[in-house]
Amino acid sequence: MSSILTNNSAMVALQTLKTINNDLAKTQSMISTGKEVANARDNASVWAISKVMEADVKGFQSISDSLSLGQSTVAVARNASETVTDLLTDIKGKIVAAQEDNVDRDKIQTDIDALTNQIKSVTSAAQFNGLNLVSGTDDMKILSSLDRGSDGSVVASDITVSRQDLTTDGGAYGGGGVSKSANGTVSAATVGATGNTASYAIVYNADTDVFSFTIEGNTVNVNGNTDTTTTIDNIASAVNALGLEGISASNDGSGNLDITSTRAFEDVDVTASVTGSATIDGGASDSDTIGQRAETITFVGTNVNQGDSYRITYNGANYDYVAGKGETFEDVARGLQTALDSAGLGDVSTRVSQNDSGQWVLNVDNAGTDVTDFALTGESGGTASGGLFGLDSINVSTSDGADRALATIETLIGNSIDAAANFGSSQGRIDTQQEFIDNLTDALKSGIGAMVDADMEAASARLQALQVQQQLGVQSLSIANQAPQSILSLFR
Question: Please, is 76 exposed, middle or buried when counting C-beta atoms within 10 Å of its C-beta (0-12, 13-18, 19+)?
């Protein structure tokens, strides 16, 4: 049945043409925007995922900027600490030169003062955008990543860079109220400047008796002679003839041989024996260890917190060191050593060492006068001493000052080297994270492109095909619209 009111062929052709036009419009949009999914209508789920990823890319670009800023800040601090190390090494060279007696120590001290001022200039100028990592103790946090969980939550990650205080500030003794005194054990009794003595009761019996004394591997054999007093005198003379540094022997006038050690930082082992019917301390043999002359502090604690303050009271005066963040009892021992050395005490020498148990020990020796008091106290809540504490007090104008300066400069060089190493490690981590973030950003961009970008080759081919289909659709609609005209022939 033909109808002039309803043209089914035209409707089919029109719908086909509309579909072709819609596809053509979409293809032209893909070509003009370069995107297959340009908005949520195109593909809601893909568009949503791509927008989340685009937001992450934006965040990572900001993180890259943050890492670049942090990298520059740490680089400045590392260069400063390396420069300080070089300057401290130059100061050490001056101190070593000052050990000689035939040099002008005053001129050397002038050079040391100039180098010290240069170090202060370097540490005060080592800032980037107002942040100085070689002054103070507060950490710096650098935004390094945004970690997205499977539930969609986002957590920021940081790289923490510890400040390395290379100032000469002595800090401030604590007032936190928590005692730290138990972290150090002080030698039981003060030692006189004359050192420590081991006494041996000698009983002479016959000239055939042979007395043997071995001191630090050196042995003397002395025959009995006439009587106890003469025998003791002969043994003392033989021991003194060994020429052992800091070791002397004498007759105390009461039948005892006294062997005395004034060695500051070394115990002395003595073994005695006798063959024959004579006796030493009532028997045929005896052995002793003569303790070092120095006072000792053995640090027995397990951890050191920032602001922990330690004070040595020595002959009526106080000498303080306040620990910084991340320090150990080695740092505390060396800090107290620096405090004592910086005081310029005459005839006083110090040493830091480790005992067989791995504990750090500070030894303090006074070769001039007897020690009247020696104690250690400690308290929390102080302001940390600078890493170059003691630098201002280096004075090589005297022989004793030059000797003490050697220990001080070694500690300071170690501190500056540690600072440079820490900054170098942090800078390496930042560099690695920067490279990772850049690569991750590129990967995210590539992934987003794979989801939403149009395939231009396919779009170009499809455009040409749709244009041909459009032309054919127009012709088909034209033919369909002409079909009712054939009905007119029925009425002619």
Answer: buried
